[in-house]
Write a structure and sequence with these properties.
- The complex is a heterodimer.
- Helices cover about 45% and strands about 10% of the residues of chain A.
- Chain A contains 15 helices and 7 strands.
- In chain A, the strands form 2 sheets. In chain A, strands 2-1-5-3-4 form a 5-stranded mixed beta sheet. In chain A, strands 6-7 form a two-stranded antiparallel sheet.
- In chain A, helix 11 packs across helix 15.
- Chain B is of the alpha/beta class.
- Chain B has 2 domains: about 120 residues, Glutathione S-transferase Yfyf (Class Pi), Chain A, domain 2 (Up-down Bundle); about 160 residues, 3-Layer(aba) Sandwich (Rossmann fold).
- Helix content of chain B is about 45%, strand content about 10%.
- Chain B is globular, with a radius of gyration of 19 Å.
- Chain B starts with a strand and ends in a 9-residue tail after the last helix.
- The mean pLDDT of chain B is about 95.
- Chains A and B meet through helix 6, helix 9, helix 10, helix 11 and helix 12 of A and helix 1, helix 2, helix 3 and helix 8 of B.
C-alpha cells in the first residue's frame, strides 16, 4: 500500500524557524503502525526527522502525537486505519505544549501540572502496624485511572487548555481523582478545596476529547465529573459551577425540565449580580427577536411530575 | 416511520425556532412523531456532575416509557442524544447496573429491558431517508450557499456510546446531509470541537474564546453560515456571538442555522415559517445572497 506521510516539521535552529509540512512516500504493510513508518523514514529516507519513542508496545507513553488531527500513540495506530482516500496520513506534534523539534514536544508544563495535584498518597492518622489496607472493590474502581501512562494525548486535544493554559488539564485531574478516591488517602478534602479553585476541576468544558483520544481507556473527563460530584458532596465552597449543577438538579426535581431563566437567576443570584445583569442586553434582544417559546419565558412542570419527584426521593433514601 | 419524539428542554425554551422548524419539516419527510410529554430532562451532563446514577435512573425511565410504546426515540439535540446514548450504553453493557436501576424504576411500575433505540434527527435522515430520499426532497437547491458544519461534542464523542463502530457514517452525518441538500460544504477543523456552552456559567471568558475561535475559523474557510444539530451550541454561537466579538475585538457576524431550518429552506419552505427571523445574528444577509430563490423575510 503506497502511502504518503505528510509530517509537520520544525527545527528551531534553522532560520527562519517556521513549521512546515514535508511529505514522504512509503510502501506499507497492512500490519504496520504509524511508528513503524516514522522509524522507517528516519532510518532510510531522512535521518533529520526527530521523534520520541521507546517501548513500541503502548506502555511507555512516549510516542504521543497527532495523527490526522487527533492525538494518539503512533505505536498503537495502524496506518491502514488512518490512510485517507487519497493515500495520505498526516502526522503532527501534540497540541497544547511547546514543540522542541519536529514531533517532539516539551512535556515540562505537563509534569508541572501533574505535580501540582500532589500525586502521592497522603494518609491521615497513626501509621498502621502492617500495611495500609484497602478493599478489593475500592482498588478495582481505581484500576482504570491507574492505567494512565502519562502520554499527554488528553492534554494535547483538550479544548479548555486550547483557550486557557492555566487550566490544570485532564491528565492531572485524572491523577487527582486517583488519590481522592483512594480510601487510604486522608487529604481528600484539602485536595478538593485546591481543585475547586479557578483553573481546577470546574474549568473543564466537558468536550470529551480526552475520553476519545486516551489510548488506555482512563476516561479523564469522567474522573473530572466524579471529582465535581465529590466536591459537591463534601460541601467545599460553592462556585458558579457547583451552584449550576445543584440548581439544575433542583429544577428537574421541581419541574422535570430545565428552566433557563431560573437556572441563570439562581446560579448567579445576588452573589454574582453583575454577571446576571450583564446578560440583560442579550435577553432583551432575544425577546425582541421572538426567541420565546409559546408557553412563555417561565416553564411549567411536566405532566405527572410527582413520578419524577418520587424517583429523586428513592435515590435520596438509598444514600 | 413512527418515533417517540423527545424534543429536549432547549428546543421548547431558549431555541423555540428549532422546535418550530422541526414541526414544519417532519410531516413531509414521512415521519410520524408522538411527543414524549411526560419524559424528564436528560440532565444534560449537568445533573450528572452532581449524581450520575440519578441521571441514569431518569433516562432509564424515559427509555422504559418508549419501550412500552414500542417506539424508538427521536432527539433533535446533540446534547440530549449524547447524554441519553451514554446512559443507555452504561445500562445495556452492565446487567447488574441495569438491574439496580430497574429496582428503583420497579417501584414506579416500570422496567427497562434495554431495547430502546435513541436516534438523533440527523441520523434518521442519514439512515432512513438516505441520499436519494433527501435529494428527492430538494425543491430549492441552495447552490450559492457555503455552509460549515458544527456537530456539538455530544454527537461526536464518546464514539463507542454513539454507535460509530456499527454506523461509521454517523461521524460525518451532518456534512453528508448538507451536501445532499445541494450546498457547498465548508470543511474546517473546528467542526467537531466544543462551542464552549458548558463553560459559559463557570468561565465566560474561556467560553467566548471558543465561540470566537470557531466562528472566525469557519469564516476564514469561506463559510456564509454555520449549521448545527445542537441547540446548546446554537445558544452560545448565536446568542453569545456579539459578546465574543467584543471580547476578542473581532468582526464575526456569522449566522448560525439549525439543521431543520436548512432542510426546510431547501424543501422550498418560507424562511419565516422556519424561525429564521428569531436568531440574534441576522440571517437576512444570507437569504439576500441566495437571491430570488428565497422570499424576503417580512419585517
Amino acid at each position: 500500500m503506497l502511502t504518503t506521510f505528510r509530517i509537520r516539521r520544525f527545527n528551531p535552529e534553522t532560520s527562519p524557524s517556521m513549521p512546515y509540512f514535508q511529505e514522504y512516500q512509503l510502501n506499507m504493510d497492512r500490519a504496520d503502525t504509524v511508528l513503524d513508518a516514522l522509524m522507517h523514514i528516519r532510518d532510510t529516507l531522512d535521518e533529520s526527522l526527530t521523534l520520541r519513542c521507546s517501548c513500541r508496545g503502548a506502555i511507555c507513553g512516549s510516542c504521543g502525537m497527532r495523527i490526522n488531527g487527533h492525538a494518539a500513540l503512533a505505536c498503537k495506530t495502524k496506518v491502514q486505519a488512518m490512510v485517507s482516500e487519497r493515500g495520505v496520513v498526516q502526522v503532527e506534534p501534540m497540541n497544547n505544549m511547546p514543540v522542541i523539534k519536529d514531533l517532539v514536544t516539551d512535556m515540562a508544563g505537563f509534569w508541572d501540572k501533574v505535580r501540582q495535584v500532589q500525586p502521592w498518597l497522603q494518609p491521615a492518622g497513626p501509621e498502621p502496624e502492617g500495611e495500609y489496607l484497602a478493599s478489593s472493590e475500592s482498588m478495582n474502581h481505581l484500576t482504570g485511572v491507574m492505567g494512565c501512562i502519562m502520554c499527554g494525548a488528553c492534554v494535547s486535544d483538550c479544548a479548555a487548555l486550547e483557550v486557557d493554559e492555566r487550566f490544570v488539564g485532564p491528565a492531572a485531574l485524572a491523577k487527582a481523582y486517583r488519590f481522592v478516591a483512594d480510601p487510604r488517602d486522608g487529604a481528600g478534602r484539602s485536595r478538593l478545596l485546591a481543585l475547586n479553585e479557578p483553573g481546577g476541576m470546574w474549568d473543564c468544558t466537558r468536550c470529551m476529547e480526552c475520553i476519545e483520544v486516551c489510548p488506555k481507556g482512563v476516561g479523564p473527563m469522567d474522573r473530572i465529573m466524579s471529582l465535581r460530584s465529590r466536591g459537591i458532596q463534601a460541601n467545599v465552597a460553592s462556585t458558579c459551577g457547583s451552584r449550576h449543577a445543584e440548581v439544575f438538579a433542583d429544577l428537574i426535581y421541581q419541574k422535570g425540565r430545565l428552566d433557563e431563566p431560573m437556572l441563570a437567576a439562581r446560579t448567579f443570584g445576588l452573589r454574582n449580580l453583575s454577571r446576571l445583569l450583564s446578560l440583560l442586553p442579550m435577553i432583551f434582544r432575544a425577546f425582541v427577536r421572538g426567541k420565546v417559546p409559546k408557553s412563555g419565558p417561565l416553564h411549567r412542570a411536566i405532566p405527572g411530575m410527582e413520578k419524577i419527584r418520587r424517583l429523586f426521593q428513592r435515590m435520596e433514601e438509598r444514600l | 416511520m413512527k418515533f417517540a419524539f423527545f424534543p429536549g428542554c432547549v428546543s421548547k425554551g431558549g431555541c423555540p425556532e428549532l422546535y418550530q422548524s422541526v414541526m414544519e419539516v417532519y410531516p413531509r419527510l414521512g415521519l410520524e412523531l408522538k411527543e414524549m410529554t411526560t419524559a424528564s430532562c436528560t440532565g444534560a451532563g449537568v445533573l450528572q456532575e452532581k449524581d450520575l446514577k440519578l441521571g441514569d435512573v431518569l433516562n432509564a425511565r424515559t427509555f422504559a416509557l418508549a419501550e412500552q410504546s414500542g417506539l424508538p426515540i427521536m432527539t433533535i439535540c446533540s446534547t440530549c442524544q449524547g447524554v441519553m446514548s451514554q446512559a443507555n450504553h452504561r445500562l445495556t453493557t452492565d446487567p447488574p447496573y441495569l438491574a439496580a436501576v430497574n429496582e428503583i424504576l420497579g417501584e414506579e411500575g416500570l422496567t427497562y429491558r434495554g431495547t430502546t433505540q435513541i436516534r438523533h434527527f440527523v441520523w434518521i435522515l442519514l439512515e432512513e431517508l438516505g441520499e436519494q430520499g433527501i435529494r428527492q426532497q430538494v425543491r430549492r437547491p441552495l447552490k450559492n450557499l457555503r455552509a460549515a458544519p458544527f456537530y456539538g461534542c455530544y454527537l461526536q464523542r464518546p464514539s463507542e456510546a454513539l454507535g460509530f463502530q456499527d454506523q461509521p457514517e454517523r461521524a460525518r452525518s451532518l456534512e453528508l446531509i448538507m451536501s445532499w441538500l445541494g450546498l457547498e460544504v465548508v470543511d474546517f477543523p473546528g467542526k467537531t470541537r466544543c462551542c464552549g456552552f458548558p463553560l459559559l456559567t463557570i468561565n465566560e471568558k474561556n467560553s467566548l474564546r471558543m465561540v470566537a475561535s470557531h466562528t472566525l475559523d469557519a469564516k476564514r474557510h469561506g463559510a456564509d453560515i454555520l449549521v448545527t444539530p445542537c441547540p446548546l451550541c446554537h445558544l452560545n454561537l448565536d446568542g453569545m456571538q456579539s459578546r465574543a466579538a467584543s471580547q476578542q475585538q473581532a468582526d464575526i457576524d456569522l449566522p448560525i442555522w439549525h439543521l431543520p431550518q436548512l432542510l426546510g429552506l431547501a424543501m422550498g419552505m418560507e424562511a419565516k415559517r422556519l424561525g429564521l427571523t428569531r436568531h440574534l445574528v441576522s440571517t437576512q444577509g444570507v437569504l439576500d445572497k441566495l437571491g430570488s430563490a428565497v422570499a424576503k423575510i417580512e419585517a
